[in-house]
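Thread title: Can someone regenerate the structure for this chain?

I was given the following input by a collaborator and told the matching structure tokens would be attached. They weren't. Posting the sequence so someone can regenerate them.
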Amino acid sequence: MEEKNKEKEKTFEESLESLENIVKSLESGAVSLDDAITKFTEAMTLSKNCNEKLKNATENVNKILKENGRLEEFKIED
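Best answer:
Regenerated them for you:
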């Protein structure tokens, strides 16, 4: 459980770098089946965390601070 908390504490960039390293390792073919399964599971967790962070960032970018200080959805008017 503590390992999951460490993954959630990583920044998006750190998680992405870890994910890239896992992919390189798996693509090399020099990993045993058991290690590959472990690395794949870790990669899926990292991928999920990155996706959540991107989703949250997208939601924040799509909001605009109005003059009264309230955040509202950003809408482009035609």
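The mean pLDDT is 84.
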